Amino acid sequence: MPISTESAADIVRLFRTGLGRRPEPAALANFASLLEDGATFYDVAHIIAGSPEFRQLHGDEDICDARYVSFLYHNGLDRTPDPQGEAGLMAAPNRGDGLVIVAGSEEARARTDLYALLYPEGASPQDDMAYKAWLLRYDRLSPTERLAIGRHIDQGMPSRPTFSLMLQVGNHRLDLLEETIASLEAQIYTDWTLIVVYPENLRPGIRTHLREIMRRVPGLVGVEVSSHQGVEGRWRSALAAAVGSFCAFMEPGDQLSRTALYEFAVAIANRPDLVLLYCDEDRLGSDGQRCHPSFKTGWSRDLAYAGDVIGQLAVFSRARIMAVGGIRDEGGSFARYDLLLRVTEGVPAVCIRHLPRLLFHRGRTPGLPLMFPLVRATQQHPEMRDVVLQHFRESHPDLDLKDVYIGGNVWPRIVYPANGTPLVSIIIPTKDKFRLLERCVSSLLNLTGYQNFEVLIADNGSTNPEMLDLLRRMGRDPRLTVLRLATPFNWSTLNNRMARQAKGDMLLFLNDDTEVLEEGWLTEMVSLAQQPSVGVVGARLSYPDGTLQHGGVVLTEHGPKHILRSAAEDNPGYLGQLVLTRDLMAVTGACMLVPRPVFEQIGGFDETFPLTCNDIDFCLRAREAGLRVVWTPHATLMHEDGGTRGRDGTARNLFNACVDVGRLLERWEQIMLDDPFLNANLEATDYTLQLATPPRAPKPWRRRGRGHKASTRTVLS
């Protein structure tokens, strides 16, 4: 049984106050089970007071002496006892009662930050207990904020979008409909209507109850349909009754946060050409508690083909729905997903908006389908897969969808066609790393299935005799070109100079400490680079032991971070992020493919970044130019990391790397804080993805307040 936050907080306060520590997970679970089975706070306090640990800490005498009272106050209230409180506590009949008095006080309750106490090192978004504690800290709306929203609605919004919310009911569970209605009636933004579609064969009692609800709730419209009409037809009937400028599909029991429609309305008012909005969501458990959050990424078309990454609450432009033909029979139970693909087809990414805010709570309706990525477009879920294939036949007949096995599970892979075989120039900077270079080049020549490539080796002043001999031998191979550039190491300069010498239509920048692992890697990267608006393609790189070295880069206030570095080979990442092709802000230059026209348009690498961050800066300039940066897990190479220039362990290298990061942060200050592909409710280190403390998403009613800085540069989002 899930642990309630109330039980967890009680146990944490008792442990902290009486033992001076937080409970270990097993103890938390055991005591929570006692509370759920009917034990009281008093009972648990006396169990703790009778424990060997407690007696060893405080002695065997069961009296509340001054030393014991001081311990309780210091650990439970973070202060020394006041005279009156000390006197009252010393009069308690035993230590268990004294523990109850302090740990159960309002002061102790007010000081209990459950998340900080249980998870001082942070926690995964997939830990439901941590998520509940995190919600206690951050998911609150104060009366002052409520007033600020009201003022913004009345005085600060340039327009007032309207919403039609649609759902279907049948011959059961109108209590779930009531839950949805209650969440709508609690909305601060009130420009909504609710369209309830119901079959003509409703049982008399259900029909009477539904009519009572319709009479009671302003803005609720009932639509009766034939009992023979399918799910898709019922949605069409709902759409026919919709009057709002934006529409959303819901299920009975679904709930919105109080600010949901307000936040959607603000986004639409600020960008009237939006065709789709979506938000983060969680689920309501059988006990009514929120769990299983889904912290989504910014819009990525490739990712959307893998399954319904948007989730249940997609807010569509009604005009756009009508323009693409509305709900179709072909979608079956995935009719809304079919609609999503058609609504977003051919639409600029700036017209699709993700709000990284927990605005939707998926209902506890029994039998609801699982969410992405548990349900994805593979042969294991043929109806969803058929929706994607139908969309491809209609809009992208050259695309295909295949199943691939990664980490023992089946995942969808979008197969893009190569438009011919353009010449790829593979550029490799190197110096004295003859074993690394020989392995890298040998694997390129012997394992790469794509044949139309040349290799340009930039020797940055090698002196090692074995290296010089290797370079002479390589220079005799017509597929290889060796150029000596004996200048101080500057990664950007070396690659820019070699790019000018290259003959290829595509430029692949590759470190010499990499090794090709499978033949299809370059075909995959070239195919992606030929897709519309793609400017940069990155690959999956693994360490020699198979763990992850590069699964894409996210931006943070502390600089760029690799996603889940050292993750196990079979780890799919959060919401499938390590096994699905998707858009990112940046990828590493250790293996980066760029069409030559893009490289020339962007102006090459910035040579004022000699050591690090040059690849990130290039990607951000590509994004600023309206181009996409795409990462694929289907091009995999080994990368030792640091072999090309050596580890950045010297004082000079560390200093120069810090200078590069500092300049990157200064140049791209706001973008580093607002990476759309790192959810604002999550924070990344090089090795982990955790709940953000605090969340970074600005609240619309605070946008003009202190601490919010307008971006001076824009990127495609």
Automatic annotation (TrEMBL):
**UniProt biased composition (Basic residues):** 699-711
Q: Keywords on this record?
A: Transferase
Molecular function GO labels? transferase activity
Give every Glycosyltransferase 2-like domain span.
Answer: 425-602
Query: Which part of the chain is the DUF4214 domain?
Result: 48-86
Q: Where is this region: Disordered?
A: 693-717
List, alphabetically, the Pfam families matched. DUF4214 (PF13946), Glycos_transf_2 (PF00535)
Q: Which PANTHER family match?
A: RHAMNOSYLTRANSFERASE WBBL (PTHR43179)
Q: What is this protein called?
A: Glycosyl transferase family 2
The organism encoding this protein is Gluconobacter cerinus
